[in-house]
Amino acid sequence: MVDEQPRVGVFVCHCGLNIAGVIDVKAVIEYARTLPDVVFTKDNRYTCADPGQDEIRKAIKEHRLNRVVVAACSPRMHEPTFRKTCAEADLNPFFFEMANIREFSSWCHPNTPKEATEKAKEIVRMAVAKARLLQPLKEIEVPVTNKALVIGGGIAGINSALDLAEMGFRVYLLEKTESIGGHMAQLDKTFPTLDCSICIEGPKMVDVGRHPNIDIISYADLVSVSGYVGNFKVKIRKNPRYVIHEDCTGCGECKEVCPIEYPNEWDMNMGVRKAISIPFEQAVPLVYTLNMDHCIECYKCIDACGARQAINFDQEPEEIELDVGAIIVATGFDIYLPYDDPLYGYGKYDNVITALEFERLILAAGPTGGKVIRASDGEKPHTVAFIQCVGSRNLKKFEYCSGFCCMYALKNAILLKEKYKRDVEVYVLYMDMRTPFKGYEEFYKRARDLGVTFIRGRASHIIEDPDKNNLVIRAEDMTLGQPIELPAEMVVLCTAAVPRSDAGEMARILNISRGTDGFFMESHPKLKPIDTPVDGVFVAGSCQAPKDIPYSVSQGSGAAARAATILSKKKWKIEPIVAEVNADLCKNTQAKCGICAQRCPYGSIEALEKQPAKVITAMCHGCGTCVAECPSDAITQNHFTDEQIFAQIASALEENPEGKILGFLCNWCCYAGADLAGTSRFEYPPLIRPVRVMCSGRVDKDFVLEAFRKGAGMVLIGACHLPYDCHYISGNARMKARMDVLAPMLEKLGLSPQRFKVEYVSAAEGLKFAELMKEMAAQLQELGPDKVKAENAKLKPILDRMLAKKTQKKPPQIIQKA
Amino acid sequence: MPMKIQKTGSDTQLVVERIHHAKNYKLTLDCRLCVGCELCSLICPREAISVAKQPKKDGQKTQHPIIDVDEVKCHYCGICTAICPYGALHVTIDGNNIASVIEKESFPQLIREITVDATKCPTDCTECEEICPLDLIKVTSDPKTNKVTIEIKEEQCPTCRKCEIKCPEGLIRIRKIFTGKLTIRQEKCPTNCQDCLDVCPITDTLYLSEKDGKVYVNEIFCTYCGACKIVCPEEQALELSRSTIHHTPVRSGAWNKALEKLTSTTEMTKELRGKGRKKTMEAVKKRLEPRAK
After folding, report:
1. Residues A583, A575: contact at Cβ < 8 Å?
2. Rounded to an integer, what is the distance from CA A776 to the centroid of its chain?
3. Burial level of A721, CB count in 10 A (0-12/13-18/19+)?
4. Which of B1, B45, B104 has the CB atom closest to A352's CB atom?
5. Measured between beta carbons, which residues in chain A are less than 8 angstroms from residue B22?
6. Residues 6 or more apart from B201 whose CB is under 8 A from it?
7. Nearest Cα residue to A323 out of A418, A228, A207, A428
């Protein structure tokens, strides 16, 4: 280990024209050269491309760089890339720091290049300030449990499970309902080939059931997930079926004697099932379930089961705990039932049904034996109208396109035409017919050739003739440009696919985020479409956004491959940005403190009596909440030390501080939301100087005080939404408690309340972030620099006194070379 | 629409329905036959049936309680139809009269043992027809052959035995469905209260004593349906307990549960023990048979 003076290299990226189109890269380079300890600067067209990375590696060697700053895109995008680059040049990867001048500057201030350049310079300055204080860290290696959990037994989950099992990993397939199969098992035929859905899915389900590496845990709920990549601990509650899994042979004799029939949800309540039954013939696992809500306890089934003794009325819910290394979430979607939209009369008119209900009608094994009949009179309809985009592409309901409705409407139209030939007229009312994938457009043509009538227009109202229960659809034919009235004997609503009703609960348990549409969010919409922000947790299928079968299947396999990258290793490296306790400073040795242990969301700190607190490194997730909570500043978070953040604050507020907003943004929500504002090119005033922290829980009161001491115009703390969005369970709540005390105190000291803000912005709320910036800029302008300066001058002596301990103590300048 | 659940009511009947695309379930309560007793509501496994007293109107007789069925809870098992001694409830599935619990032998049928020897009936006697409190008996005599026929709507007969007692020739034999005990503690009765008497469907079961103006029981006619118990305003004034129920043999947990609710735990165990004894006897007999040969 050699102590040495920092030698910083700054690399500024053009990113084609993404950065250079707005920001004067040369000026940034010039400026960077003037910064302390900067010994090398360079600009690249694409720093992340191979030649760009080569430059970095070469410069490290040639100029003996021991710190690297890349000013380019978001660290959420390429920090791992450049850390690797540094490591390849034998520089500790944690000597790398990123300055985000694309998402935070060029993309969100395209019309004010001068200000954007200034902002970029300062962001680089902040990065260099932090880089000078960086410490080398050693990545922590953790063992990997070579087992996977797949949540959801639909077609995506089935494929994930099968692929992983074939690779030789043990897989637990968790299914909420009685059988795997998902929505696909409810369908009649599939587009565009018209294969029978269950005939192609059934064999796969059987494969899953018989695979020696797969354990199906059906009729069970996910209770909790703890741990981290490679080492998740999963709690599952198995609900009682009142039938012993191992002893049930699936013979069905119990069903024969059961007197009770109740609506079968699998049949969309169009058919019935016995109180002891399976939802459908091909169910896997083939184990009967007794529904206690409906059972009258006559025990006839016990008699019928006889010597097999598979029925046990005393079964209780059972909780099991599993150790897995990776989790694939494939929980699927729900179908929107438009009870709340009076326009369509669903629930009011007998002959208005949803498309999924239509699937059960036309399915040969369905409740009507494949006869398409009307609920009102049991007769076959002679005119059937499909209405597209019910709920979807509707700003008042669901903004997104549900993707597969056009195709299944075509499929159902073709099936009707092929089944009843000239006996049935089929109309499709559509907004746009979307048939983008292989064989889909040809399928559309097939429907047209069969004589299906397509009318472009949106239904405005459906009315029913109360005598015959026939319907009349009022719509505008956009091709003719005039209103039409379309009589139909049956109306099929192609309704939106919506997030599952328990998606929020699932997101909370797994600590993953959801988009504004309610579906689970991927790590990156293009490059990491299967990953989630939680390492080791992947998404597949329609839980991420509506998907058709081929897409779900490929994503299921994709998720399996992603999970295998972890499961195939013996050890997995995790970021060493954990907390450490300085035993000398910890006051727990003298008095009973233990605040850190109480506040740690993961219970990873031990504070035994008369002993300094201790962080259990493998359990620490690196949020930094304990660091901010510690009353004696005895805890530090690696890579996000107080000194480093103080340096960033000082650097950000070097010039014209009263005109700036200093933002402490949490990596997972607000920082990501700000990134999204940039990616989406939402323009906002260039006042914010971002300090990225892993969690808002890391934001110490002192940071806020220091910012105002340095004269900041405004301070923003950007966190995940309360109560459940926090990536670290409760870091945001801890921060809120802390700031709820601080805010009134600052106000008392004469600070205008609008100058200190705590805001909650999710990773999906780019627009909200941009709006927030505009609002804050307007408020700051309203206050005016003079008032801000006056307030700050009044505050300064008090803050000086409050922060005396921290600011007078020289930050340790011992630099170690790893 | 996937499934329609509806309730329609009129003065004469209450209908709850669950209509699926290919199947429909219907429970009909005939309000003209219903006397507002507690039996169905006591044993409904879904607790879908409720009984409510009707508000008393000044100067009028107390009306019998009203039965209401929760259309969402009802799952059309038919237990209520099996227990109703007045035949007021019917379940139909796709239009056919089906009580699935009886079909699958999950619940017994009540046995009404009514024997009438009409051959000996005098041609001009219509005593039974006149006395029947529920108008269930029709006596016709053929003037040519002098042959008398007596028709009884058995499925609606609660076996009160009034006709049996009344018959001058002793030609009717009836075994009651329910046996039990009905006691009225006159000292607890509120003054001038005769609510129980007003609602009792079987005339003369309860009568007003001329001595003290209180209601007394003539248990011989009592059907132990419990309508009186529901309207009684005083908690301990009227006590009803059933001891046996005459029914077809059945092996069912649902029946045991119902039996316990209708009678008492002791009576239920008695019946179970009886069943056990019978089974043991049969088993012993079976074993002895080859030896006897």
Report:
1. no
2. 28
3. middle
4. B1
5. 270-271, 367-369, 373, 378
6. B35, B64, B86, B133, B134, B158, B223, B225, B227
7. A228
Q: Which CATH class is domain B3-103?
A: alpha beta
Structure tokens that stand for A87 in this block: 């490591």
Q: Which residues of B touch A257 (CB under 8 A)?
A: 104
Strands A170-174 and A147-151: parallel
CB spacing of B45 vs A258 below 8 angstroms = no
- Rounded to two decimals, what is the model's pTM? 0.84
Question: From the candidates B1, B40, B92, B275, which should be mutated to test the interface with A, based on the most A CB atoms within 10 A?
Answer: B1
| Cα–Cα distance, A446 to A777 (Å, whole number) | 57
Structure tokens at A641: 């030390």
pLDDT at residue A816 in the model: 45
Average pLDDT for residues B267-281, to the nearest whole number? 86
- String of DSSP letters for A487-516: EESEEEEEEPEEE-TTHHHHHHHHT--B-T
Q: Is some CB atom of chain A closer than 8 A to the CB atom of B61? A: no
CATH class of A1-139: alpha beta
For position A67, what pLDDT does the model report? 94
| CATH assignment, B113-175 | 3.30.70.20
Closest alpha carbon to B225 in B72, B46, B39: B39
pLDDT at A2: 42
Q: Which residues of B touch A262 (CB under 8 A)?
A: 75
Which residues of chain A neighbour B253 with C-beta distances below 8 Å? 297-299
For chain A, where do the domains classified as CATH 3.40.50 start and end? 1-139
The single residue listed with the structure tokens 């709690």 is A235
Q: Is the pLDDT of residue B293 over 70?
A: no
Query: Which runs of E-coded beta strand occur in A406-450?
Result: 425-430
The segments of chain A whose pLDDT lies below 70 read: 1-3, 808-818
Q: Quick one: A335-498 is in which CATH superfamily?
A: FAD/NAD(P)-binding domain (3.50.50.60)
Closest CB from B1, B20, B101 relative to A353: B1
Hey, is the C-beta of A252 within 8 angstroms of any chain B C-beta? no
pLDDT of residue B91: 95
CATH of domain A240-315: 3.30.70
B105 near A CB under 8 A: yes
What is the rounded CA–CA span in Å between residue A134 and residue A130?
Answer: 6
Where do you find CATH 3.50.50.60 in chain A?
A: 141-239+317-332+507-568, 335-498
Nearest by CB to residue A296, choosing from B22, B77, B103, is B77
Neighbours of A611 (CB within 10 A): 12
Q: How far apart are CA A188 and CA A419, in angstroms?
A: 13
B202 near A CB under 8 A: no
pLDDT of residue A817: 42
pLDDT of res. A345: 92
Best probe of the B interface among A257, A260, A313, by most B CBs < 10 A, is A260
- pLDDT score, position A146: 96
Tell me the H-state helices in B141-264: 162-166, 195-199, 227-231, 253-262
**Chain A, window 395-454: residues with a beta carbon less than 8 angstroms from a chain B beta carbon:** none
Residue to test with chain A: of B21, B49, B75, B261, most A Cβ within 10 A = B21
Q: Which residues of chain B have a CB within 8 Å of the CB of A268? A: 2
Interchain CB distance below 8 Å, B20 and A300: no
Q: Which of chain B's residues have a Cβ under 8 Å away from the Cβ of A341?
A: none
Backbone angles phi, psi at A789, to 5 degrees: -60, -40
Contact A270 B3 (CB under 8 A): yes
pLDDT tens for each residue of B74-119: 999 999 999 999 999 999 999 998 888 999 999 999 999 999 988 8
Q: Computed from CA positions of residues B210, B211, B214, B215, in that sequence, does the dihedral angle turn out positive or negative? A: negative
